[in-house]
Amino acid sequence: MTTTGRRGRRPGDSGTRAAILEAARSRFSTQGFRAATVRAIAGDAGVDPALVMHYFGTKQGLFVAAMEFPLDPAEVVPRLLAPGIDGLGERLVGFLLQVVDELGEANPMLGLVRSAVSHPEAARMMREFLGEAILDRVAEAVGETVGADRPRLRADLCASQIVGIIMARQILELPELAAADRATLVGAWGPTIQRYLTGSLAS
């Protein structure tokens, strides 16, 4: 008697769902929303594409579930602010680079940056996580402490720099940026972020 390979649900629902999410994070992070297909994600996870739809309903539902961030802004922001305003720009850049380096190809931020141009849901998620949950709160705290005006504009300026950092270093992989050590990059970018947060916005 021969046995045929069984397609569909694998033993252990939680393990199957986790495998799909891991495969999706990797695909979305390296290819973006449009290029990453459900069939390819299912193949990476070793399941039938129908099972992906069973768990997540749509490709967009899978994207939203996969792009959850493995850190809590409610914990991150107080930790960044605790030492005071001086050096905040360097701490913010250092934290960003640490997260990107430690999460590697499965980093949700890479998936969002790659996808945001063509996928409105990715752009919204990026704004909510990086902007509203982290940078807006940081800029508001700076404004309350040192009287810096227009905190939302300051937060957006920081976001523009941070997205540029991710794009140049992780996605375009500009050689010198990709090869530079973290301390060098923190020293180069940190003062710019600090100026956005605390410096004058007037010409």
Automatic annotation (TrEMBL):
Pfam families hit by this protein: TetR_C_16, TetR_N
Portion annotated as DNA-binding: 37-56
SUPFAM superfamilies named in the record: Homeodomain-like, Tetracyclin repressor-like, C-terminal domain
Residue ranges occupied by any HTH tetR-type domain in the UniProt entry: 14-74
InterPro entries: Homeodomain-like_sf, HTH-type_TetR-like_transc_reg, HTH_TetR, Tet_transcr_reg_TetR-rel_C_sf, TetR_C_16
Keywords: DNA-binding
Signal sequence extent: none
Gene3D superfamilies documented for this protein: Homeodomain-like (1.10.10.60), Tetracycline Repressor, domain 2 (1.10.357.10)
Keyword DNA-binding attributed: yes
PANTHER family in the record: HTH-TYPE TRANSCRIPTIONAL REGULATOR RUTR, TRANSCRIPTIONAL REGULATORY PROTEIN
Name of the protein in question: TetR family transcriptional regulator
Naturally occurring in which organism (per UniProt): Actinomycetospora flava
